[in-house]
From TrEMBL:
This is Argininosuccinate lyase. It holds the Pfam family Lyase_1. It comes from Akkermansia muciniphila (strain ATCC BAA-835 / DSM 22959 / JCM 33894 / BCRC 81048 / CCUG 64013 / CIP 107961 / Muc). Its main location: cytoplasm. It catalyses: 2-(N(omega)-L-arginino)succinate = fumarate + L-arginine. The keyword tRNA-binding does not apply. It is found in: Cytoplasm.
Amino acid sequence: MWVMWKGRFSKPTADLVQRYGESVSYDWRLFRQDIAGSIAHARAQLKAGLLSQEEFNAIESGLKDILKDIEAGNFSWSRELEDVHMNIESELTRRIGAPGAKLHTARSRNDQVATDTRLYCRAEIDEILGKVRHLQRALVMKAKEYADAMMPGYTHLQRAQPVTMGHHLLAYVEMLDRDADRLKDCRRRLNVSPLGSGAIAGSTICLDRHGIAVELGFDAVTENSMDAIADRDYIMEILFDLAVVGAHLSRMSEDVILWCTAEFGFASLSDAHTTGSSLMPQKKNPDVAELTRGKTGRLYGNLTAVMVAVKGLPLTYNRDLQEDKEPLFDSIDTVKLALDVNAEMIAAMTVNTARAREAASDPMLLATDLADYLVRRGVPFRKAHELVGKAVAMSISTGTPLNKLSDEQFASISNAYGTDARDVFELTKAFAQRTNPGAPNSDNTRRRIAYWEGILSK
C-alpha cells in the first residue's frame, strides 16, 4: 500500500495504529468539498505554471470521475490510507499517473482539511436554514389555525395568565428566527479560505490564494497561517448554535408532551407521529417530542467534546483536532432530522380548543387584571397586590370562585373594590385590553402571523 510518508519510515504502520488513527470511516462525507478544493488548487497550479494544461485537464477530469463514482456508490474507501484526502489523491494518481502526484504541491492536509470542513459547514448551514424555515412555516400555519384559541399561560408550571395557542406557538417562531440569525452569523465568520496556509507556515511556492477563494465561494482568505491551521472556532460556534436550536426544540417538545397528557388535554398528535405500548393497549406516546428532548443532550455533549479537545492544544495542528468531525457530523445530522420531524408533527397536531378555553377560564388567571383594576381606581400597585391576595385567600377559604365573590365580600376587604370588580373576569374583555406590542391580543397575534407569512414566503 502506497504511504505518503514512506521516505522517512522504515517500518509500516501497525494495524492497531491504523485502526486507531483512521478517520475515513466518517470523514469520507467531505468528498465533495475535498474534490472541489483540489480542482481549485490545481487551477491555481496551472496559473502558476506548475501544471501544463494537459495535466490540469487530466486532474480535473479524473477528480470529476471519482466524484461520480463516489456518488454512485462505486468507490472503495481504504482504511490504510487514513482519510478522505489520501483516498481520493491515491485513486487519482492510480488513474491518471504522474499528474496526480503533482496535485499536493504547495498544500498540506492541514490546510486541506481546514478548507474542506469550512466548505462542509457552509453547505450544511444553508440546508439547516431551509429546515428552520420549514418548521417556522408549520408553526405559523398552526398559529393561524388557532389564533384565538384561549389557553392558560404558565410560570413555574402553575397557571399564570391567559394567552392563546396562536401566541404560544409564535413564541417558538421567534426563537427559531434567532437561531437562524446565529447560524447566518456563523456562516459569515467561517467563510474565509485557509487553503495556501500549508502545514503551518505557508509555502515557498506561492499560489493565487485569492483566486482559489473566489472559485470556492469564500469571501476572503485567512491572514495568519498558524491561526488558519489551528482554528476550530467555527466548529465550536456551529455546534453551539445547533445546541441552542436543540434547546428550543426541547422546550417546545416539553410543552407538546404536557399538552397531550390526560391531565392537560390541550392537544393531540397524529397517529403517524406517536407510538403505542407493547403492554398497555390504550397508550399513545409522544415519542417524537420525547426523543427530541433526549437528543438535545447529545448536542450539548458534542459541543463540550470539541471545546474540551481544543482547550489545551498548543499551536498549531495536533492530531486531537481529528476528533472534531464526529461530533460535528452527529450534531448536523441530529438537528436536520429533528427539524424535519418536528415540522411534520406540528403540522398534523390538533388542539382541543374547548378544553384549553375551559382551563383558561379559571378566574385565578385574571388576578393580576384585578390588581390592575384597583390601580386604575387610584390604589398603588403594591397595595393593590395585597388586596387581591386577600381576595384570593377569601376565595380559597370559603370555596367561592374568585369571580363569584359578592360585593359585600369584596367590600369587607377594601372599599377600593367597586360593584364592577367582577367585570374584570370577562375573558374576552381581558384579552381585548392587552394591546401593547407583544401581548396576546388577537389583533396583535394576527398582525404577527401576517408578518411571518410575508417573511417565510420569500
